[in-house]
Amino acid sequence: MADVGVTVFALEGGLLRTSVRLEYVWGALGVKPRAAFVSLMSGAKPEGVALRTDLLPLDADVLKEIAALKASGQRVALSSAKHPEVAEALAAVHGLELSEATGETRAQNWSWRALAKAIRPHQWVKNILLLLPLLAAHRFEGGALILALLGMVAFSAAASSIYVVNDLVDLEADRLHPKKCKRPFASGTVPLSVGMLTGLVLVSLALGLGAYLGPKFLAVTVLYVFVSVAYSMRLKRMRWVDITMLASLYSVRVVAGAAAAGVAVSGAMLFFIFPVFLTLGAVKRLTELTLATSDERLPGRGYGRPDRGKLLNFAVVSMIAALVVFFVYSNSPQAVALYPDRWFLWLAIVPLAAWLFRMVRLGYYGKQDYDPIVFALRDKRGIGLILITLSLMFYAAGLWAQWFGF
């Protein structure tokens, strides 16, 4: 629709490549969850929540059309029928009139490829952590492995649903980030409603597989989803708490692998992997700070570049703690039973320490990806160090002799 002599563009489905209503809902969720729920049900603007209209994704084709119309001397207006506060701000920036007419809406095109990017399948590689309990218990039979692999599928679906939620909660923070601004929801290439439906389907799949694998695995899956949502909503904005929660989420994967395969996970193993994951959590923040372009705090985080020294100290202390726990474990009755040639176990500390040091060093100098686990599973030199560590542990356990006769 258009006023006489005026071309009117719709706000949603026109100039904007996003839903203002859902922008308000997800913007409120991290600070005022109750207001967000009321807004979702009623469609009303949540009180005390404002949108950064300068960050909202715009339709490039509509902008070109507006520019062409204005260049030809025609009057161009933006519909203020819905969300007039947003329409007024955008109209002022782009030199448009305001109209109470609804304007013509257009279907927002999106691709499955863009949606696939949003669920981050490359991150599923982190769920290889579910196989650690089998590795530690020297359980390599097919039945246990299949159950663990099903657990990996469940956790991959759960993780992807959380990535969707995380991106929806972090819309504004992502738009302020030099790389994350290109994410599908932040850039407007995938509608927020599609993301919400996708997240619901994925978490349903995760819980369904969790129920199939048994009550213990289902309980761990529910715990993972709950803690992940809490992390996305609030905890990741709290200094030091966020690193602890990252380490906890990595550790939960290990517990999930044990629950899926029906093997025990020892306290010694958890005491070892937790400081390892604390190290990697600190490395994740170190990398982000090193790659930051200013000394201001990271969007949606509690750290700024001046905190790099503290994070480095935290990473080093956690690394040392992990190595000490590994050495103490090597002298435990369980280690004596599992590893007859324990001096190979002590020797494995060397490549393990080299790998951890490499991760910290590369993170401090900004030579990693934003996720240390994903980076570690692509880093050829790091993988070499991990394989040396595992080979020495297998030799200490007598597995090489059992498998290959030497």
Features:
406 residues; mainly alpha; Tetracycline Repressor, domain 2; 3 domains; three-stranded parallel beta sheet; elongated
Condensed summary:
The protein is built from 20 helices and 3 strands. The protein has 406 residues and is mainly alpha-helical.
CATH top-level class of the largest domain: Mainly Alpha
The proportion of residues in beta strands is: under 5%
Strand order of the largest sheet: 1-2-3
Helix-strand pattern: EHHHEHEHHHHHHHHHHHHHHHH
List the helices and strands and how they pair.
Layout: E1 6-9, H1 20-29, H2 33-42, H3 60-71, E2 75-79, H4 84-94, E3 97-99, H5 112-119, H6 132-137, H7 142-169, H8 171-175, H9 184-187, H10 192-213, H11 215-233, H12 241-261, H13 267-291, H14 308-330, H15 333-338, H16 342-347, H17 349-364, H18 372-376, H19 380-397, H20 399-404
Parallel strand pairs: 1-2, 2-3
Helix pairs in contact: 1-2, 7-10, 7-11, 7-12, 10-11, 11-12, 12-13, 13-14, 13-17, 14-17, 17-19
